[in-house]
Fold this protein.
Amino acid sequence: MENKQILIDSLPQGKLQTSDYRLATVPVEQPGEGEVLVRTTAFAVTAGTRAGLQGSASYAGAPTSGIVMNGTGVGEVVASGDPAFAAGSRVMGPTGWQQYSVHKGAALTAIPAEHDPIHYLGPLGVNGLTAYFGLLDVGQPQAGQTVMVSAAAGSVGHLVGQMARIKQTRVVGVCGSDEKGALLVSRLGFDAAVNYKDAGFRDALKQATPDGVDVYFDNTGGMILGAALFRMNVGGRIACCGVVSQYDTDRPEPGPKGIPGLLINKRINMRGFLLFDYAQQYAQARREINGWLQSGELLSLTDEVHGLESAPEAFVNLLAGGNIGTRVVRLD
Ligand SMILES: NC(=O)c1ccc[n+]([C@@H]2O[C@H](COP(=O)([O-])OP(=O)(O)OC[C@H]3O[C@@H](n4cnc5c(N)ncnc54)[C@H](OP(=O)(O)O)[C@@H]3O)[C@@H](O)[C@H]2O)c1
């Protein structure tokens, strides 16, 4: 049996190009004792993996070429040397961009039969849990407060905004097009959306946050963080989730002006977090998020492309803002 894979052919110089990837075909590995062979049915294309290629995600180790592109996927167990995972069952794990992969059982999460596996790439997966813990634990939103989120129409962002709405806050999303902004308000219940590409962005943000900002969920860093800092209320919280505005380049810009002065004057708590810190609480979080999905309070937007070969283009396009919600490559 053959396994098609997308390899990182060369580390990006400047912006990521589809030519940084190449297709390879290798024999399917067989699982040993305690190992599980998974056939990928879909994987997520996510912004954070660009930080891994840049070398700015220290937890991911040094960027390397000649290996399968990393990513979280869902799939079906084909053969198993681990009694916890029967053949035919469905799992989530670090499949990477390939048709088949072998894992230690401990690296996989079983997907209950009643759950849609695609939700494990969105609200019940890495990005949904990131939204949940970053907003609720780091952000600590209180009813009636204002929550601002950047990359608001993306995978993490559209979930953050809806969770903030569920917690009865005023929600302001920042995104890169008026079309995305209109969708956030009309479909997802955001109170306002602001386009950071507009010349009048800072004024529009001021108008959208008349009572200031109590929680800023920062997916982007860069000039949006710079603008948010000036809208923060005394005692505000900034949840530093990611820096997508600075990933797709060899020359990331320095952080914004006003730090630490603004943090001191307004007693702002600005805190970075990584999802892995919350591993002990994933099951509880999944139960609550699934409850919101079932009740219809939380909508999961998925932006699907088809076929392994379409992944590099889907990634380049995501970094340019082409996605709405979670971008998923389907192989089934
Ligand atoms: N801390 C953690 O544990 C953790 C875990 C998972 C993800 N993350 C972070 O979460 C963030 C969102 O990831 P995601 O997978 O959900 O990606 P995503 O938001 O679905 O996609 C990236 C989005 O970033 C926006 N963007 C691109 N260039 C930008 C720029 N220069 N300025 C502002 N926005 C820009 C684009 O939307 P526009 O149209 O709005 O420009 C694009 O759609 C990333 O920073 C990622 O690193 C952190």
Observations:
- The chain has nine helices and 15 strands.
- The two ends are 17 Å apart (CA to CA).
